[in-house]
Fold these 2 entries.
Entry 1:
Amino acid sequence: MPVSRFIDGNAAAAYGVKLCRPDVVCAYPITPQTPIVEYIADFIARGEMASKYITIEGEHSAMMATVAAASTGVRTFTATSSQGLAYMQEGLFYAAGSRLPIVMAVVNRSMGPPWTILAGHDDAIAQRDTGWIQLYCGSGQEILDTVIQAYRVAEDERVLIPIMVCFEGFVTSHCYEQVIIPDQEEVDSFLPPYKPPYKLDVEDPMILTTFAPPIHWMGYKKKHDEAMEAARKVIAEAEAEYAERFGRSHGGLFQAYRCDDAEAVVLTMGSLASTTKVVINKLRELGFRLGLLKLKSFRPFPREELKQLLGNVKAVGVLERNYSVGGWGGAVFLELRSAFYKVADGPRILNFVAGMGGRDVTPLEIEAVAKKTLRAAQEGKGEREVEWLLGEIG
Amino acid sequence: MSDKLKLKYESYRELPITPLIKAGVSRLVETPWHLHGKPQVNQAKCIGCRLCWLYCPEGVIAVKNGEVEVDYARCKGCGICANECPVKAITMVLR
């Protein structure tokens, strides 16, 4: 029987990992990810998990040891956050370029300086071009379910790309909620053992991920991109099957809420979606035709699916916890606008930069975002294309 | 798996998902880049100490029946063997 436990987001990630039976776990602790590492170490110490646990001296080594373990054809897990993620960047390229289906929890924390340990998506967004799939979660339940789905997607022979399961530091990682933990047998039947297409094998020796001559190098990159494109379908398939088996759905690539007849839509990722949902419901009661789009998959960016869904909407307000300095907008905003390039009568797209460095995003602020987006929909123009939610500095 | 790998590909679609090479393919390829000439061994002077075999960075020196054999198809001509030989039994001969 599935059990319901009152746990925090980090524990939800750890329970998800435990159910996936990774052969090797190798991670270095960093706030706010540390409890994941501790929970998993506890599971292994108590004999509840049969994984090999490698203690290691830093994030660069953690990723490289995970890459090495995954190269032998086994299931692996690691986790990090912020500065640690940046420190392992070389390894991120290594994992993705080697096409190893590693799953990593990234507890999003803004990059310092200015120094902080609090939430922001800017750490993972900065790694968007490393070739990893990035799935953003907004609740403990979503984290647990996404970790299980992530292994299924990453190990699919059409994909074979490592996955970051991202969720915000403290607001999601340390927030307690009821989380349903499914049966081991059910997870086992959803997630069969990993069958690697190649591996380090003494019986069949090969040189892995070696030098590629100039005539080949771009071909490997192109194949990686094609697999990333295929991942859009595989993510949706995995979500559909998971929903059928476990009775829970988080939308796969994204979740659309009250978007059908909406004039304007607020698009956001992770935990901000739940606050936005409350605001949308309140404004709907007052007669405002607003919807919410919770984007889960930032890589692959579901541009065709979003174009279809938002094609009839007049304005989209992108509320996001990251900003590209000098790039005139957050990454999601820039990519959404790019997706709608040359689409006649596409929506007006506004950007609201918020919640970095742990700054609270209040329902009142989101209400203003929603109303401004609606005004842009009705008047065909926004006050400003990119607005920072800075409020009052106390 | 390694049996399916090739050395030449017609299009990028045929490439494996990441660069993979069957172990030992360097045995199939000749790389005779004799930068500082070919090491010539005077077998009469050789005392069989095997320092040349030990120091050869390419692993192309073998000692068989007390005689030093150099695999010239893969020797790079670095001259380390000649430099290490305590009795100067090896000389680098430029073409």
Entry 2:
Amino acid sequence: MQPAISVSDLSKTYGSGFQALKHVDLEIQCGEIFALLGPNGAGKTTLISIICGLVNPSSGHVAALGHDVITDYRAARQLIGLVPQELTTEAFETVWDTVTFSRGLFGLDKNRAHIERVLRDLSLWDKRNTKIMELSGGMKRRVLIAKALSHEPQILFLDEPTAGVDVELRKAMWEVVRSLREKGVTIILTTHYIEEAEEMADRIGVINKGEIIVVEEKVKLMRQFGQKRLELYLQEPLDEVPAALSNYHLELAEDGNTLVYHYDIHSKRTGITALLQALGEAGVRFKDLDTKQSSLEEIFVSLVQEPQ
Amino acid sequence: MSAAMSFESIKAIYIFEMRRAGRTLLQSIISPVISTALYFIVFGAAIGGRIAEVDGISYGAFIVPGLVMLSLLTQSVSNASFGIFFPRFAKTIYEILSAPVSAAEIVFGYVGAAASKSVILGLIILGTAALFVPLQIDHPFVMILFLVLTAVTFSLLGFIIGIWADGFEKLQLVPLLIITPLTFLGGTFYSIDMLPPLWQKITLLNPVVYLVSGFRWSFYSASDVSVWVSLGMTAVFMLVCLVIIHWIFKTGYRMKS
């Protein structure tokens, strides 16, 4: 099947000389939720902006369902909806007018039924005659989503959709995104909140310093890069890891009160039994133990920090 | 690239811009009408009574075309520049840039709306003038042609200024420092025959002279320069603006980094 978005050898150098993207290749499949993770300034917004037509690429190609975003921009942009990062709305327009304007801008005739449906889905129907400036930040965010959905896009970009949004609204936003996916909309979101990607995404791309470091299914990514750690809470603090245990690469934490052992849950031998035996032989006694799965956040941090 | 114009997109921008004018009716219509009325009272009635006829026309009537032009020029520039500057400033321009609209459609929408507003305003001012002096329009079609051409041309100029400006100060700078002086020195309140010979030559470098002169001809069949030269100069100026706008969209100047 044709990818929803295909990016090939895309680079962008701004006038200031800053190279925001370096030979990026990326394919996003139809119907998936793709999360683009990366620290500030990694190139997330630049990538989205080029795909959506806000920024000119320096080199490379981008296509939406096979339509080049430069040479065939009308067809490409018709497919795409964009929810920008900043709350950039008109102030004096009403919700209804601004969403209707967006639909008109995309060259479509008025479809009151569709706009009503969009507003109802986003719980904006009661506010349809309210001026945007009178809305709360979270409501403005919904207005931006409604505008992006007004022309029935097949591909939706959400740039930091839940930045500065309270927990309740964030959950509600996730529901909206899920229901869109059920309708077959491809969703690409950038986020700072790893939790968000963990919760929603089918696949995850990590971008750092203008390069895509990894693109993987979330489940695989967590399995591949995820580690488990065994924490042993000692009865007596240790000054250093006993020499007899050096094979296990243990870490001493919390002022010598905790020993930490990293292991791979997918390997045949985790080494836990042997470790515990060795501990007994070395006379190290512990009062409790705990195991932890590394979160996506830890995986992300390790990925982004590694190439130094 | 699909060639057909998207009429719906142009309409969306046009209606949006016209609605904005509706919201700021006081600023858009009433304030220029009041200032024009003041000009008539001061120059037409108070001082004009002491000034002899110009080209056989009473002074009060003589300044009408110039005053209409004065408002038309300043309002076209300020309407159009603000119309495109504000979305850039508020960053709502993202929506225009990410929509499947061509540069021509964007210009048609914004410039069309700004020019429409100025033409409406020009007609209102003409109506206001009729309350103070007896109006005579010898060539109504040429009058409308000048009105529309000038409104479109200076709205194009305003559009360029709105793209070029990176702050509110620059947005005011050009109208204040260039348009207003050129209009006042462009024969709004006098016939250039009244100037010393040297200044008559220098003043011909001012494009506004041609607009005011041609516009005045459509009223009274009398002008400083030939009406064809006037029309030609307006067309040239419009062409220059179009070329600059073409360049803006081609390079993405100040719109796309």
